[in-house]
Design a protein that fits this description.
The two termini are 35 Å apart. This protein has a five-stranded mixed beta sheet, sandwiched between helices. It is an alpha/beta fold. The chain folds into two domains: 166 residues, Ribonuclease H-like superfamily/Ribonuclease H (Nucleotidyltransferase, domain 5, 2-Layer Sandwich); 31 residues.
């Protein structure tokens, strides 16, 4: 299975072709359907002013970034982290354009030369939630991802939030039945089934946990316009 890396950037402005540059890169891994511990993060000296509108979004100015490395100085480390991976990016066209130009300036080709593919979560969200708002904040609200710390945009924080949203968006696409690939695994599973379940300690859900679960089911049924399997079975 292709390794997955969730990526986000912050920039000096919105137009890469007019000279705007990347000022922050954040990447996190997804391993076994969970957000991994390994990450790549760098603030960058863009060698140009930061637009006031952009500063209002991410809170960074050129003065904050003057002492940071330039993109070319961290490019190899960045590529070491993402090479061969599927990159998961929200509004991927924007980030890929900036990264292509930065890599080109560093003499390192284009992003596509180094990775397996790009998955755009904005396009995916528009496909499964047509006509709805699909910003990162909207996805966090829809999928109950806690974004309370997102007072300003930050590449690493946003990559972590997007990773959680992506996992929620794709839940159910993975197999619900795990294959037992070896006789040893099958034997261990059989032994587990024969365990005396009477000794198991059962902890009931707290009222607030039950409320959150019911809220999740309500939201899922509203999106699907059909009763959830959980409630049908219960």
């Amino acid at each position: 299975m292709t390794r997955q890396v969730v990526l986000d950037t912050e920039t000096t402005g919105l137009n890469a072709k007019l000279g705007d540059r990347i000022i922050e890169i954040g990447c996190v891994e997804i391993l076994s359907r969970s957000v991994g511990e390994r990450h790549f993060h760098a603030y960058l000296n863009p060698e140009r002013d930061v637009d006031l509108g952009a500063t209002r979004v991410h809170g960074l100015t050129l003065e904050d970034l003057r002492a940071k490395p330039k993109f070319a100085e961290v490019a190899r480390e960045f590529l070491d982290f993402v090479t061969g991976a599927e990159l998961i990016i929200h509004n991927a066209e924007f980030d890929v354009e900036f990264l292509d130009l930065e890599l080109g300036r560093a003499g390192l080709g284009r992003l596509a030369d180094h990775i397996a593919r790009v998955t755009d979560t904005l396009a995916f969200a528009r496909e499964i939630h047509p006509g709805r708002k699909n910003t990162l904040d909207a996805l966090c609200e829809r999928y109950f991802v806690n974004n309370a710390n997102r007072t300003v945009h930050g590449a690493l924080l946003d990559a972590r939030l997007l990773a959680e949203c992506y996992l929620a968006m794709t839940r159910g696409q993975e197999s619900l039945v795990m294959e037992l690939e070896t006789p040893a695994a099958a034997a261990a599973a059989a032994a587990l089934l024969q365990t005396d379940l009477a000794n198991l300690i059962i902890l009931p859900a707290l009222p607030e946990e039950v409320a959150l679960h019911e809220q999740y089911l309500d939201n899922m049924e509203k999106q699907r316009k059909a009763p959830s399997l959980w409630r049908q079975l219960s």
